[in-house]
Design brief:
Elements lengths: L2 H5 L1 H23 L1 H8 L4 H24 L2 H28 L14 H9 L16 H18 L6 H18 L10 H20 L2 H22 L4 H22 L4 H15 L6 H19 L7 H8 L1 H14 L3 H30 L6 H4 L7
Helix pairs in contact: 2-3, 2-4, 2-13, 2-14, 2-15, 4-7, 4-11, 4-13, 5-9, 5-15, 5-16, 7-10, 7-11, 8-11, 8-12, 9-10, 10-11, 11-12, 15-16
Length: 383
Amino acid sequence: MSPALARLAWLDALRGPAALAVTVHHAGWTFVPAVWAEVDGLIDFGTWGVFVFFLVSGYIIPASLERRGDLRAFWTGRAFRLLPLLLAACGSALVLALAGVFPLEPTLGERPLPLVVLGNLTMLQELVNLPAVVSVTWTLSYEMAFYLLSVALFATGQAHRSAGIAGALALSAVPLGLLLPGATIGGRADLAAVLLCLAVVAAIAVTVLGHGRTRTAAAAAGGLLGLALVVLGSRAGTWQGVIILATMFAGTAVYRAEQGTISWRAAALAVAVVLGCGIPAKDEPAWAAAIVLAYGFFALAFALRRRAYPRWLTRLGVISFSLYLLHPILLHVLPHVALFFLALIPLSLLTYHLIEAPAQRLGKRLLPAPPSADDRGHLTGRA
């Protein structure tokens, strides 16, 4: 294993258990709902898993963006990392739904199919009140908002402010959540959903294809759009939505402190503020236990990041996106607990090797050349 891969093994050791936690959560409610209701009353394992994912994204996404220092390369990498498997999963779900095997969200049939496809492929469906084809993709909407904000901060030279942004988001989540308890982008606003999705696509396209100040302006506009969508469009409510975004920036603050860009005191304060404002975001003890344990699990793995991890654990992390995205479909295709768990990991290994890995290799081959001297002058964010 190369030094770079060894350095990131602890992140894969986090991703695998997080994906399995979400899988077990949904399997529990499917196969043993009475038993799982008791477990879920103590700790929401699904929330635990996705918050671990959000912290990992917060840590690694800015590092990935800044390692190459090229916004075109970043968006190209993200597209080839996420879209091929997302297309395969959504396509499979729709085909299985036509065969009567997979139940789609009831409201999906009430919205124009092209609009639903646009929302799901831009990964914004959760924030523009569109139904998801695969239920768990709601988290990708928050990931997309974080990408947009991270790119905006990088392009405008403000990437080093992660700790302050995490704290500011968390502190603003409380009053905003009280004022906006539900999404204000709601109803059957088809035109608004189309315009918002296309506006984000346009901002990314200009960021990828533009140069100089035009690119910077497009990146900044995309960041503002991402923030507005989380504040106004979070279906779970603004408080929870903004806390999710703040959690990712808390993960970034840890990365900044590790790199020496900010002090550990600033990073610790940011994490404490996000946790303090996030615990009461949902009036359920299982929510509070889940996010506290997610932060604790991330902190433990970070403290042990230089240790060697078992190969099977890091391998589980490598296929975690397949595990996460495919398990809701498999739950209905194989509605038996033993068959479900026996098939899940082999299927995820198969889709990783046939879809994810080839797409990532293709994306790397298509990555644009390093930015010109003129472009580098406008890409001033640094780790």
